[in-house]
Amino acid sequence: MDSTPYLDRYHQIGAVDQQKNQLIEDLLQRVTDLENSFQREKLDHERETRFNRDIQLHEMELMQQISQIKTIMDREPFVVVLLDGEGIIFKDEFLQLGEEGGRSAAKHFCTGMHTYLVNNLSSITTPKIIVKLYLNVKGFVETCVRSGTISDPATVHDFIRGFNETMSYSEIVDIGSVKNKANEKIQETFQVFLYNCHCHQVFVGCASNPEYATFLQDTLSDGDLTGRVSLVEGITFDKELDAVKGSYRIAKFPEIFRSSKIAPIYVAPWKNSLPSRSLLTPSPSQQLSNPPPLSRTSTNTSASGLGAPLSVSTPPVVKSNESPDFQVVRSKTSGSTPVRSVERNKYGQRVDRLDFKSIPRDDLNRLKKLKLCNYYFLLGECPNEENCYHDHDRKLTKQELHILSAIARMTPCRFGLECDDPECIYGHRCPQSEPGKKTCFRGDTCRFEPVAHGIDTNIVKVTKI
């Protein structure tokens, strides 16, 4: 019997077994690969789970930090108001009231600004209002006096003091007489506050000039910032700002600020020629004929807002024989008018006979605080006695009258050294300067002109009036 068929069958069965074994091996390898993949996926999943958990915890921490930062940013919100005194001028009725007018102006402006914020920027809740008005005080005083807005330069200084004392965050800053200094200060301060997270709005009260137009145009280049900036219009904006003013909110306070500049009546009264003495001189020796109601100032009354000269008559002078150093008009007298004179040095400059160093500082300060009427006590009659805010009832001693005369001399007379009014109670030379010295300890801040320093006090001639 041939074994070949059996051998073939054996080989066939062996081949099948071999295929079966190979299939088993392949299946086992596949299971191993799947198990390895599963383990990797499991590890990845576990890592992702831990990562997500960490991310969630970190996100919660970040949200807490953001909430804390937001709380800090919302704390003590404020708006800042930067005003150029050339374009923002308080109305005459505030200026003429001196210190009381300053307080009233500060309160009215604060109230008006709060109302504006409620109506236009309601998202800003209970902000503090920081006000900085940059002003050339000396130049402004001269403008007010020359225009007849006030008659006593001290009124403006009293107004500024009252304004600065009233609101904790409001102040008028004297920038001196450097041209465009207010513009420079406003631009620099503007940059400081613009990016302050606590500052929710910057108000700019500018004058109509090319420098502000360029500055505001540059600000428009950053669209995200323009919503943080508003303009304050006092004196009506001119054509210089036409191109940019439409891009900003504009706040107006017509009941507080003037819409037009103060127009001087005359220029340089003590230089080449003197104007009529009827144009509201600061030497209030003249008695008003049918005087209109006068406004109140810190040292005496002020005729303000008058564009025409006043009819005046000069009362007779009664010299006090109680002191050789000063002259006081105590009351009007009948009879002939005595000869009046002005004492001058060899240069023809007026000399006030008053030794300020001999006056006790404490007595000087005490009398200042009494708010006495200079007109009444030194000239014998107040032109607005019924409406005057100052004291007329106090009884003064000879020494107190002497000191009051010195206090009046601390306010510069606008006619300076050329003043020829023998009854003038104002100062014609700086009381702090010494002969030969062209300055005093106040330096550039002195209210007296440079020519009023170092005056020769030796009297060589008398000009009879």
Explain the overall architecture:
- It is a single chain.
- With 465 residues, the chain is α/β, with parallel strands linked by helices.
- Helices cover 39% and strands 10% of the residues.
- The chain has 2 domains: 74-252, Rossmann fold; 285-465, no CATH class.
- Helix 3 crosses helix 5 and helix 10 (361-369) crosses helix 12 (398-409).
- The longest helix has 71 residues, at 4-74.
Write the layout of secondary structure elements.
Elements: H1 4-74, E1 78-84, H2 92-95, H3 98-120, E2 128-135, H4 137-147, H5 154-166, E3 170-174, H6 181-194, E4 199-205, H7 210-219, H8 223-226, E5 229-233, H9 242-245, E6 249-252, E7 287-288, E8 312-313, E9 341-344, H10 361-369, H11 374-379, H12 398-409, E10 461-464
Parallel strand pairs: 1-2, 1-4, 2-3, 4-5, 5-6
Antiparallel strand pairs: 7-8, 9-10
Helix pairs in contact: 3-5, 10-12
Key features?
6-stranded parallel sheet; Rossmann fold; 2 domains; two-stranded antiparallel sheet; 465 residues; alpha/beta
In short:
The protein is an alpha/beta fold.
Structural class: alpha/beta
Mean pLDDT: 79
Number of domains: 2
How large is the radius of gyration? 41 Å
Distance from N terminus to C terminus (CA atoms, Å) equals 175 Å
Number of strands: 10
Oligomer: single chain
User: What spatial order of strands do you see in the largest sheet?
Assistant: 3-2-1-4-5-6
- As residue ranges, the low-confidence spans are 266-337
Number of alpha- plus pi-helical segments = 12
Helix content: 25-40%
SSE string? HEHHEHHEHEHHEHEEEEHHHE
| Beta content | 5-15%
- Report on the biggest sheet: 6 strands, parallel
Tell me, briefly, the overall form.
rod-shaped
Keywords: Metal-binding, Zinc, Zinc-finger
Pfam families: DUF7923, zf-CCCH_tandem
InterPro entries: DUF7923 (IPR057683), Znf-CCCH_tandem (IPR057654), Znf_CCCH (IPR000571)
Biased composition (Low complexity): 279-289
